[in-house]
Design brief:
This protein is α/β, with parallel strands linked by helices and about 250 residues long. It is about 45% helix and about 15% strand. The chain has helices at about 15-25, 40-50, 60-75, 105-130, 155-175, 195-200, 210-220, 225-235, and strands at about 5-10, 30-35, 50-55, 80-90, 135-140, 180-185, 245-250. A 7-stranded parallel beta sheet has the order 3-2-1-4-5-6-7, sandwiched between helices. Helix 1 crosses helix 8 (about 225-235) and helix 3 packs parallel to helix 4. The longest helix has 25 residues, at about 105-130.
Length: about 250
Amino acid sequence: MTTHLYILTGASRGMGLAMAEQLLQPGNTLLCISRHANADLDLAAQKAAVPLSQWTLDLADGEGASERLRDWLRTQNPADFGSISLINNAGVIPPIAPLRQSQAADLAMALRVGLEAPMALSAAFLGATQAWPMPRKVLNISSGLGRYPMASQAGYCAAKAGMDHFTRCLALDEAPLPNGARVCSLAPGVIDTDMQVQLRGAAGEAFPDHAKFLQLKAQGQLSSPTQAAMQVLRFLARPDFGREPVADVRG
């Protein structure tokens, strides 16, 4: 029996966890890569009778994670899968401060997890599955902050802008191949996650847009992780997925 294989990073909480929960459907197989495993997700997978593996890896080590993924994919039988998708969802927001006050280690962490790891994992995924005959997809979870600048957010904005642009390059790489992967860097909208809590809790003097994020919460303009996950997975399933390498769930 063929199944649909999903590889998802940052699946232990927030929208990543919501996506993982929604992917626990008959006919799917799920591999999650996060710093921490989620015991409730294991229980849900057992109840749904859906194969689930959780790798506890720090994506600050993109090289190690990508090597493990490449090695694992090479042990799999392509005939077991009807499709395969990589969802690069994990990201890190560094301390909210002007760049002049930022620490090099914090910036490095944001770029390693938010840009270097998705690039390395995509390279491993596409290299190991290039000869596989089924549909292959790479979905990179981006952000509006990759497209619009914001003060005191240089590290996060840079990571997401880099994600958008490497996805454009990746689309050009894959387009001429006989079974090239379809790829997209997708902004999922404004979601009520831990990142929003961090933004709302920032010191106003260091974060000029602080009031804007308080207002988004107060006016109920934030999507829940469950709602956002549903929109993202619906977008991934669209027949025209990958037609535009950079997109937004809101159109």
